[in-house]
Amino acid sequence: MNEIKQESNLRDTSPFRGPGGIGIIQYGAGNIFSLTAALERLGIPYGMINKEEDFEQYDRYIIPGVGHAGAAMAKLEHTGLVPSIKALKKPVLGICVGMQLLTSYSEEGDSKLLDLFPIKTLKFAGDTNFKVPHTGWNQVFPEMGNALFENIPNGSHFYFVHSYFIEYNVTYTLSSTTYINKFSASIMRDNFYGVQFHPEKSGAYGETLLKNFSKI
To answer: If you ran DSSP here, which 8-state letter would residue 31 be given?
Structure first.
């Protein structure tokens, strides 16, 4: 409750709030305090999207998310924003579970998702040599040129926390990471992007990625 209050106060007093920047889609399944703090540090304008009319105020959008993909999808559907999200033509970035929501299906909760990418979110196989969830820093290797990874060296480290992964598909994989198996660390299709790692917790290169997204 205190964290929610802190986020509310931050949004109300931030000098960076306002139209024309990034609209963060609010649906109750994302811890957005670290994200808004990062945007504030970078001086990137942002605001919150709670209803359909709010989309018109912003030039790009972020879908945050932590926890259970199936539960997150249920919360997102409850907002009534799903048709608007699927119709967006401006850049959209899904972060962590927000990225998984962009796929067609998740083994977590046997859940149908937004189906903006015809790929699946799968559970890491149990392995005595690897701990699940995959938690901590890991290298990310871009697999196609894109402005999202501009000025980020090949093999840079980003921070991950997840038990499910996006199946690797060369058509949509923007960058890859290996943990137990190779998977998509980021994906892209048209104006939709997703990153499995948390850029807002990934130091200088994570901040570079957020800055890059703010200019796409």
So the answer is: -
Give the pair of three-digit tokens for residue 106: 């998740």
In degrees, rounded to 5, the angle at the alpha carbon of residue 62 between the alpha carbons of residues 116 and 187 is 45
pLDDT digits (tens, 9 = 90+) for 28-86: 887 789 999 999 999 999 999 999 999 999 999 999 988 899 999 999 999 999 999 99
Distance CA 11, CA 9 (A): 5
Q: CB–CB of 178/193 below 8 Å?
A: no
Whether 107 is catalytic: no
pTM: 0.89
Token pair belonging to 93: 């970035």
Give per-residue burial for 8-43: e unless 16+ CB within 10 Å, then b.
eeebeebebbeeebbbbbbbebbbbeebbebbbeee
Q: For 57, list phi and psi in degrees, rounded to 5.
A: -80, -15
Greatest Cα-to-Cα distance within the chain, rounded to the nearest angstrom: 49
* Residue tagged active-site, from 7, 68, 96, 162: 96
Residue pLDDT, tens place only, 94-109: 999 999 999 999 999 9
Q: Catalytic pick from 68, 134, 162, 198? A: 198
Determine whether 198 is an active site residue.
yes
The CA-atom distances, in angstroms, between 184 and each of 47, 88, 134, 162, 175 are 28, 23, 14, 13, 6
Residue 200 catalytic? yes
Task: Count each helix (H run) and each strand (E run) in the chain, helices first.
Answer: 6, 13
